[in-house]
Design a protein that fits this description.
The complex is a heterodimer.
Chain A (H helix, E strand, L loop, with lengths): L5 H10 L11 E10 L2 E2 L1 H10 L5 E2 L12 E2 L15 H4 L4 H17 L9 E4 L5 H13 L7 H7 L2 H12 L5 E4 L5 H14 L5 E8 L3 H9 L23 E9 H7 L5 E10 L12 H14 L8 E3 L6 H15 L8 E2 L2 H4 L6 H15 L1 E2 L21 E2 L4 E7 L4 E8 L3
Parallel strand pairs in A: 5-6, 5-7, 10-11, 10-14
Antiparallel strand pairs in A: 1-2, 1-8, 1-9, 3-4, 7-8, 9-15, 12-13, 14-15
Helix pairs in contact in A: 4-7, 5-6, 8-14, 11-12
Chain B lengths: L3 E9 L6 H10 L6 E5 L4 E5 L21 H20 L6 E7 L4 H13 L16 H10 L2 E8 L4 H14 L5 E8 L3 H10 L5 E2 L1 E8 L8 E6 L3 E2 L6 H12 L10 E3 L6 H10 L7 E2 L1 H5 L4 H16 L5 E7 L4 E9 L8
Parallel strand pairs in B: 3-7, 4-5, 4-6, 11-12, 11-13
Antiparallel strand pairs in B: 1-8, 1-9, 2-3, 6-8, 9-14, 10-14, 13-14
Helix pairs in contact in B: 2-4, 7-8
Classes of the chains: A alpha/beta, B alpha/beta.
Amino acid sequence: VCFVSRAVYLIWVMLFPRSSPQASSRVVVTGAGIATALGLGWKINAEGFRAGRTAFRPVSLFDVSRQRAKNAAEMDLPSSLPPTHLSHRRVARLDRAGKMLLLAAHEAWKQSGWEPAENLPFVLGTTGGGMLFGEEYFRRALQQPLHHRGQAVRAVCYQPQVQARLVMDALNFSGPIITVSNACASGSNAVGQAYELVRSGQTERAVAGGYDSLCEMVFSGFDSLQALSPTVCRPFDARRDGLALGEGAAILTLETLESAKQRGATILGELIGYASSIDQHHLTQPHPQGNTTQLVMKSACATARVTPEDIGYINAHGTGTLLNDSSEATAIGEWAGRRAATLPVSSTKANIGHLLGAAGAVEAVVCLMVLAEQWLPPEKAFEVPDPACKFPVVDKPQDASVNVALSNSFGFGGVNASLIFRRWT
Amino acid sequence: MSRIFVAGLGAVSPAGWTVAAMREALDLAKPLPAQPLELRRDRPLQAHQVPNPAARPEFLSHPRLRRASAITHYTASAVLEAAAPFRRACPENSRLGLIVCLQSGCVQYSCRFYDETLKNPATASPLLFPETVYAAPSSHVAALLENVSLVSSLVGDPSAFLQGISLAVQWLTEERVDACIVAGAEETNWITADALWHLDRAASISAGAGALCLCGEKGLSLGVELTAITDAHTYSAKTNRTQAARSMRHQLNGKPSSNSRELLCDGLGENVRLDAPEISAWRDWAGPRLSPKRVLGEGLMAAAAWQCVAACDALANRRFPAANVSLVGFNQQAIGARFESISSDKNPP
């Protein structure tokens, strides 16, 4: 290769190292932060998921009086944010979603025990970023076109990279920001992309996760599609009638096993597999047989070097819509074969709603909770299984012995992702 | 695989629906005219619009593109143009990757849908909402190409386009795809023009897309190799845009007076204050420069893609032995890339 200089050659090697399965690093999670409508932090969320609590209530953030659905899983933000390196002025530039992101990142960062760092990748998934700033910008531009005060700030802070930068400054680290927006698979793709960076040796550590807040436009969008449940969100139940929206954030700190061992860090679990695929069936509808869902689970298992027999729990995408759940159930049945009959599956969207760009990251943290604490998260409203379900849906709180957990996420547009975690003992 | 080659280029811009149209406009170096977008009571808003294509593109008959918005049409056209040489040369079952980078994204349908929501959410159109998501263009174009096995949409300021290229390199290096197309795209409407007015009153918003098809096979190359991408020099409390731009320039090409035969394709527009960090970083550049935004307008992520396409096109046409692309984003990072000609005779005519 004819490189112009040693410096450029070094840059090339740094960015594009040769990778091979033999050379790949094991990737562990040493910090996890979570903010959902169940509460703030690992402990309260673990208690809630373990008990099968639900967090839905009438929407108070915007007017839903003319919408078909009226409920969502709104989060109660704390009255103040944790102390960070951000000034009050800069904290004011975080909208609701940005605050959730900061809260989750702060918890993960503290738990990881990481010191301030440079060149630490921050890989985030989101569908809306600072959408609340965007909505406010739009309303003001229409209603008060001559009134410009604050519009420049809204135009800037609406963008997810700006919120990511604020969080990095708050926690005193820097590095490349990568924002993945593959709709509802964004969070899983972000965690998976960070996993690939660490596994391939491009970085020793990475921060990854997802965040999204409830907003009027997205709520109205799902309502217009009649995808929102006017009753109760019941994934995989034959009587299900739609999804429920939620909001929140989750952040994971990923690092090589060697790095974690050298630091004597507490390891929450090992990320052993990731895959992504594209379902080209329709913009918003999955293939009825879940062809690419099967493919993505198979590929993730191949990366993790496990089989369906090894999987002890699936945190399904399980939105509660007719089409998603029947497609995913069919795919899990086909992929798992005989194992399906005893493979516990549940969707924690029954508890906290669909968190869109945050969903995959939050559900990754739920898998870590399952592995670390050895229980299964139930869907208490589940009663009548869909005929496509060849597997038991967890409907009661229960302890369990789980060594490997798989999390599915599927997005509008057809990007599917699966993550596989292993218990750390 | 450790070498990455450029196998195809595509562009849709205010100059037209091909790379050739863009090249012609850049060669003339005359700013294209902007059109009034919408009369506001306090200020006129202008935009560089993409002209209607000479003939209706065939891809518009695909069922997935019937309701798609302009950004998807631009992306589709640029991607098909970039992928054409690879698709002609390779078997139909070759695995393609597709990465679409956006800053503002699907603003036309987003504004329409939110406007409908504010008026009466009960009648907001369910046909519009799915087209508002960032992932819509990549999804439609993947369906159009059919043999796409990996897809991702990245969001950021225009510098994120080179992160898309980095992701493509990763997919190619790990042999997860046989070729990967990276596109940057934007569409215009009054809200993007309005927002830009608040940030840069000299700029005129622009629309379009640019795409590069990357592969690991030298034989499929246009004669252009990607030889380096710098670190992402992210702006932070400790690093401002000027420092980040200088670090990027130092990493990409640290010599004070670079080879005067090499091309610099920069992101300069018409706003001296906003452009100051990039001007400062490349102040001593003695070689030829190309500034696509000065001709085509502020195309945000599309403009970043145009920079890369224009640089590679110049190398493919043997005008220069190498080209440096400088992307100093608005609010995220500075990042650069270097492309080199791989023709046996590196001396330009």
